[in-house]
Write a structure and sequence with these properties.
Length: about 120
């Protein structure tokens, strides 16, 4: 096995910044303005306020139902949630989508995930 270090692929911003440095040292102010414009477009694109999709809005309701369903001292698997939360059962939500919502709740600090014999369990934080 070789000891290689994984290298990060440069982003567009990295590339534009490197091109900008080259152009500044070459004295090409006209092209520097062009590159600065492209960097500004990347900034605008990355900072845009986006509306949540209909599915994301729907998931917020399901996440609230999940938290309301859970008891304080009980651990639940994704299958328990999929089969136990009435709104999720009625909507026919898949276990994979429930797992994604549970992961979002863990990342938000609402739930805690524990692993037992390669199976994840969730409880209220």
């Amino acid at each position: 096995m070789s000891n290689t270090v994984a290298t990060r692929k440069p982003t567009q911003r990295d590339n534009f910044n490197e091109i900008r440095e080259i152009l500044v040292s070459a004295g090409r102010d006209d092209l520097v303005e062009f590159v600065d414009g492209r960097i500004a477009q990347l900034d605008k694109k990355n900072s845009a306020e986006r509306k949540p999709t209909a599915k994301q809005i729907e998931n917020e309701g399901f996440k609230a139902d999940i938290v309301a369903y859970m008891d304080a001292d009980t651990q639940y698997s994704a299958a328990d949630i999929t089969k136990g939360v009435p709104s999720i059962v009625a909507a026919g939500i898949s276990a994979n989508r429930v797992t994604a919502m549970l992961t979002q709740l863990v990342n938000a600090g609402t739930l805690v995930r524990t692993e037992d014999k390669r199976k994840n369990f969730y409880s209220l934080a």
